Input
Amino acid sequence: MTSPSAAGAAGGTARGAVLEARGIGFAYRGAAAVLSDVSVAVTEGRSLALVGESGAGKTTLLRLLLGLARPSSGSVLFDGAPLASAGRTFRRSVQTVFQDPYSSLDPRQRVGRIVSEPLRSLGVAGDVAAALDAVGLPPDVVDRYPHEFSGGQRQRIAIARAIVCNPRVLLADEPVSALDVSTRVRIVDLLASLREERGLTLVMVSHDLAVVASLCSEVAVLEKGRIVEQGDTTTVLGSPSHAYTQRLVASVPRLPGV
Output
């Protein structure tokens, strides 16, 4: 019997989606399909997590939503129109934060130039100092280089670069997985506050269900390139219908007696 959330995964996507994958498939040349008939909608003002084991297709789906690759079948839409027609409006509206804060920042550039890069490439105005302040960094960091900062500080710089042009959507690929536990908590808190204060819509790839539960109101579960369950995070993680989701939830470490 098909669960309601699994049925939603196979059906149409929501109205009013700012970003949407509609029946997309993707395969690398000469290889088996990475994604098959995936439909998922990102509703403005809501935050969506893409979860699943390694190799499930999460990062590939994120790349397709970001326009870094084209689907082999189906379509990706931005404000209801094909992504290819969105141009600079899409690039300003949708920004990304990558997993590794050590490799995502150019070591040859000062922080001020790194954070202002989207403004130069898009030809728009923005406030670098305000973006740095929003992530908890003082204005004098603009003259320093990435190697002078810790991993958590580097991820704050990467987030400042992503928000400097005031995007509507932030796509984050495992944004805290490379950080230690205490730093991870602080970055999660930062993302939560930015989401609230700036009205950001967050789309996040994560294998950490605790992070997902604290940041995202909706979740889509991928298994071997297909969405097997999706819906409100509380429902999907609290009462999972699909056996794969049940295994993911059961695998989360718990303290003895909890």
About this structure: Residues 181-198 form the longest helix (18 residues). The two ends are 32 Å apart (CA to CA). The CA atoms of residues 250 and 256 lie 14 Å apart. DSSP finds ten helices and ten strands in the chain.
